[in-house]
Specification:
Elements (H helix, E strand, L loop, with lengths): L19 E4 L5 H14 L8 H14 L3 E3 L2 E2 L2 E3 L7 E11 L9 E9 L4 H16 L1 H8 L4 H8 L12
Parallel strand pairs: 1-5, 3-6, 4-6
Antiparallel strand pairs: 2-3, 5-6
Length: 168
């Protein structure tokens, strides 16, 4: 008698279901980050009085190394002791936003997340999974076709967790 197959864990398994997907009018990296951080505040991931601090930290991180990872994807992110939970928000830009990526392609999909410092598993799962997607132009194109929360969550469900993420 064969064992029942266990469902392979995916990146979707480690992210909250209340992800926001926004269609951005922003034209600069700074504007996009401002809007996405505001969305994290609205999701009650971080308190309103901490919003400027979080925005500054993410912008400072961009100065050190751009989160524009290529093929039209940017992944601004951070950890904060003030984060109440993992929060993820997605900005879609029809015109693209310059995130200073190595391939010089503007970001059409900006996935921002913030988490508590102890949420290493979730942080790494998002980073590894989405970075893998960005390396593949076909997969990056599939991500760029996402238009709402359901589609984004479904897409995350196609990204297997790596064993070092604790997924297998």
């Amino acid at each position: 008698m064969s064992q029942p197959r266990r469902k392979e864990k995916t990146v979707r398994d480690v992210v909250p279901p209340d992800i926001e997907v926004l269609h951005l009018d922003a034209t600069t990296r700074e504007e996009a980050i401002r809007v996405l951080v505001s969305t994290l505040v609205a999701q009650d991931v971080i308190d309103l009085e901490r919003e400027p601090e979080l925005r500054t930290a993410i912008l400072e991180r961009e100065k050190v190394a751009s989160t524009g990872i290529g093929n039209g994807i940017a992944l601004p992110h951070g950890k904060s002791k003030h984060a109440k939970k993992l929060g993820v928000t997605v900005g879609l830009s029809a015109q693209g936003i310059d995130f200073n990526s190595r391939d010089s392609i503007p970001a059409y999909v900006i996935v921002m997340w913030i988490c508590e410092p102890r949420q290493v598993k979730q942080h790494l799962a998002l980073m590894r999974g989405l970075a893998t997607v960005a390396k593949d132009p076909d997969r990056a194109g599939q991500l760029a076709a996402v238009r709402d929360r359901r589609q984004f969550l479904d897409f995350l469900g196609t990204i297997p967790l790596e064993e070092k993420d604790g997924g297998k």
